[in-house]
Amino acid sequence: MQCSLARGLELIGDWWSPLLVRDLYLGVTRFDDLVEDLGISRNLLTRRLQALIRNGVIERMAYQSRPTRYEYRLTEAGRDLVPVIMALTEWGDRWAQPKEGSPILFTHKTCGHRFRPQVTCPECGEAIRSDTVIARPGPGGAAKRGTMVVAKRLRRA
Amino acid sequence: MQCSLARGLELIGDWWSPLLVRDLYLGVTRFDDLVEDLGISRNLLTRRLQALIRNGVIERMAYQSRPTRYEYRLTEAGRDLVPVIMALTEWGDRWAQPKEGSPILFTHKTCGHRFRPQVTCPECGEAIRSDTVIARPGPGGAAKRGTMVVAKRLRRA
DNA sequence: CTCGTTGGTTCAATGATTGAACTATAATAA
DNA sequence: TTATTATAGTTCAATCATTGAACCAACGAG
Fold this sequence. Notes:
The structure is a homodimer. By secondary structure, chain A is of the alpha+beta class. Chain A contains six helices and six strands. In chain A, the strands form two sheets. Chain A has a two-stranded antiparallel sheet. Chain A has a two-stranded antiparallel sheet with strand order 3-4. The longest helix of chain A is centred in the middle third of the chain and has 20 residues, at 76-95. Chains A and B meet through helix 1, helix 2, helix 3, helix 5 and strand 3 of A and helix 1, helix 2, helix 3, helix 5 and strand 3 of B.
């Protein structure tokens, strides 16, 4: 597919990948811990980890030898994905919150405040909303699968 | 599952839902247009749309009668998801870009600038990074499926 | 020399997804 | 009148992904 979203989803667009990235970020980095934490079946975990490695989001490293044991780490691309996942978590928190309250809270080291992640425009610093953004086709925009109708419509608008 | 991310993913955590939300946002709102644009099979589109309606992300509205024809619209929850999807698109653009360049560009109506969506801390306005955030369990944090190990680890840290 | 720990693999059963063909309603054109 | 087109789906068989449970292998500790 042509669009950045679809290509992003090709890398991490299944049910488990975002949860795996979150767990690795939070320090749950070993096979058996991931199985226990997420309740994912072991063979699927193997496949998902391999796919994420292929896609450059995580890497597998030995943390000891004799016997060799491995853990999984986020790559730069993986770490770069973490804020996006936090924004999604925040959305989940707003629209699908359990009665007990937020299961997770974020604190920003830099400023020391507890905060809720927000997607903003870096030019003016304001939070963006669906009705304050105009989307237009870029140099790579084409009418392929995933943007057949969208590409036409963006060009018209 | 307990965590906000997992509950968010329960609402839109499959391959097609983010693409559907994006298309609805961009004005591709009709069944046949969605099929054409995304190349999704028709029966699956039916099921995904129904699921998104059940989950409160979109709604189905007649846009004409004789014959009655329907289109799909984002609800408030759906519109609130759009910035998150833009952030994910931006990530896809950074890490899985095609040689042709960005397929899509965003302009902020409010300030008039072309921009790349960024996830920030609203307290200090800075972009957040995986290493400048501390995650801690909130009032609803519990050691259930999806946070078995994570909950323990967060409490310790 | 057996047990526990870690990091997997294998396999059968189930569920999701695909692709193609088909249906229904009404407006419009010949 | 009848044929055609547009929209919004449904149905069905085949394939693919996911689940759950059991099994395997390397090594260290008791």
